[in-house]
Amino acid sequence: MPLDQHGYYGIITHDLRAPFAALFGLSELLARGAAELAPDQVVEYASLVHRTADDGHKLLEDLLDWSCLQLGHMDYSPVSFDIEDLVQSNLRRFAPLAASKKVELRTESRHDLSVHADSRMIDTVLRNLISNAIKFTPAGGSVVLETQHVNGTIELAVRDTGIGISDAQLKDLFTLGTQLVRQGTEGEAGTGLGLYLCQELIDRNGGKLTVESVVGRGSTFRLSLAPGRPTPG
């Protein structure tokens, strides 16, 4: 059911307050006490500032995309493209984050799987799924991207060896306003808005998004899309 204006702005203000409050607190602590802190403490607090800023930036990206969807300002422009192109660009994007958490990030994708969809929307979905997988996977774990043909569709799976999702959380995972706020394995923020956005974007592309998870063993998110159209000529 579409949200009214009050519900819409309530979600935005609620979700944006947390990272900014943390940034103000941490930056004030550094500004006032850096000269008295030990070098390792400065590094620790600076890392927290960077992580919080990154969380806030990702949340803002999701909010802006969600706003465009709600207001009807996000154009749907499907084209046929090789899904591996998006896989590789996101591997490059998230390689530093995965390395900083000591999480292996790799692909088992093929180079000849064309899908017909809006590439920008699918890129947003993939960005969210990979980010979440890394967020909820502890050091020494792995995140694997895999593509394949499945029953006339192209399926892209994001598999992780993270903390998993309980049955109670799975039930409302893609329902806005009902998600349980979960922190990542290193305290990263999470609101659930990204997964709701993913569901809306996949619906817009006529695809399907599903998840399988076992607590303590990891999760697999699968998105299915129509195959690409043959190139004329």
Arithmetic mean pLDDT: 81
Which regions have little confidence, pLDDT < 50, spanning 5+ residues?
A: 1-5
How would you classify the helix and strand content by structural class? alpha+beta
Task: Tell me the CATH architecture of the largest domain.
Answer: 2-Layer Sandwich
Rg computed from alpha carbons, rounded to a whole number of angstroms: 19 Å
Main sheet properties: 5 strands, mixed
Give me the oligomer status: single chain
In total, the number of strands is 7
DSSP helix fraction:
40-55%
Number of domains: 2
CATH topology of the largest domain, what is it called? Heat Shock Protein 90
CATH class of the largest domain: Alpha Beta
Sheet-strand content, in percent, reads 15-25%
Query: How many helical stretches?
Result: 6
Structural summary, described in words:
The chain is an alpha+beta fold and 233 residues long. It folds into 2 domains: 1-74, Helix Hairpins; 77-233, Histidine kinase-like ATPase, C-terminal domain (Heat Shock Protein 90, 2-Layer Sandwich), CATH 3.30.565. Helices cover 49% and strands 19% of the residues. The chain has 6 helices and 7 strands. The strands form 2 sheets. It has a 5-stranded mixed beta sheet. It has a two-stranded antiparallel sheet with strand order 1-3. Strand 6 (208-214) and strand 7 form a beta hairpin. The relative contact order is 0.14. Residues 1-5 have low confidence and may be disordered.
